[in-house]
Amino acid sequence: MAMLLLAALAAAGPAHAQATLGDDAPLRFGRFEAEGQARYGVLSVGGVHELDRSFLDPAARVTGRVFPLEGLKLLPPVVPSKIIGIALNYPDNPPLPDKAGPGPGYFAKLPSALIGDGGEIVPPADSTNLNYEGEMVVVIGKQARKVSQKEALDYVFGVTAGNDVTERGYPFSPLQVLRAKGSDSFAPLGPWIVPGLLYDDLRLTTRLNGEVVQSARTSRMIKKVAAIVSDLSQQFTLEPGDLIFTGTPGKTRAMKPGDMIEVELDGVGVLRSQVAKGSQ
């Protein structure tokens, strides 16, 4: 197979054509486990084509090994240095308590909260109101510091689906947000990262045990992707692989042990997670 050149793709914004490996589908980048090791790959004709390093590295090449997708354990598609979320980014979000201030606003999750497609969401032992929040997640492709909105999309590698799992049973205060948002398994992510989509006009759907519980287009976001990336880069250096959860539409409700949560994003696929019957 010909060498996969990622340099142009890593720097490309959504206006550029999507790269392919010989078929008409866009490339879908991710991580998977095979032979006891975490590997990077790209989903295309015949299965998952292994890369010799992270797809965020412009020098990445296909190794020639192809793994069948069926039965393959998918990992969170990137290993970020930071995860940032945005609250109240859809006009139909219910208001937060008065002391929270006006939205949209930002908060942090922890990289240790990540789980891949098919992973289990494990409630804390004192969980009483564990909620799903289906979201589009932006993946940074190159270091961004104090970038303008006009150039912000040049720093985006692509998007994926995420679930900003939140324990709403904890009192809402700055001292509790990290527990409520950043506990282990509270950031399901995947299954793939896809570059070159129209990030500000994708259908986002969340299903709870097969029932559609959230459905909206990302065009309804109050802050669009370029504005979010530019805004965050004024105060935080965004590194390749960093994640930005862009907000959840409408209202959410509690999950219970055994529930299956699916977050589907146009062009990306379906992220599936199940709530564990045990606790942390």
Protein model, in words:
The chain is about 10% helix and about 35% strand. The protein is mostly beta strands and about 280 residues long. The chain folds into two domains: about 5-75, no CATH class; about 85-275, Alpha-Beta Complex (Fumarylacetoacetate hydrolase, domain 2), CATH 3.90.850. A hairpin with a 3-residue loop joins β18 (about 260-265) and β19. The longest helix has 9 residues, at about 225-235. It is globular. The protein starts with 6 loop residues before the first helix and ends in a 5-residue tail after the last strand.
Provide the fold topology.
Elements: H1 7-11, E1 28-34, E2 37-44, E3 47-51, E4 62-67, E5 73-75, E6 83-87, E7 105-109, E8 114-115, E9 120-121, E10 130-131, E11 134-140, H2 149-152, E12 156-163, E13 166-167, H3 177-182, E14 187-194, E15 203-208, E16 211-217, H4 225-233, E17 243-245, E18 260-265, E19 269-275
Parallel strand pairs: 6-17, 8-14, 9-19
Antiparallel strand pairs: 1-2, 1-5, 2-3, 3-4, 6-7, 10-13, 11-12, 11-17, 12-14, 15-16, 15-18, 18-19
- Number of structurally distinct domains: 2
Could you state the CATH homologous superfamily of the largest domain?
Answer: Fumarylacetoacetase-like, C-terminal domain
Mean pLDDT across all amino acids: 90
Order of helices and strands: HEEEEEEEEEEEHEEHEEEHEEE
Could you provide a short overview of the structure?
The chain is mainly beta and 280 residues long. The chain has helices at residues 7-11, 149-152, 177-182, 225-233, and strands at 28-34, 37-44, 47-51, 62-67, 73-75, 83-87, 105-109, 114-115, 120-121, 130-131, 134-140, 156-163, 166-167, 187-194, 203-208, 211-217, 243-245, 260-265, 269-275.
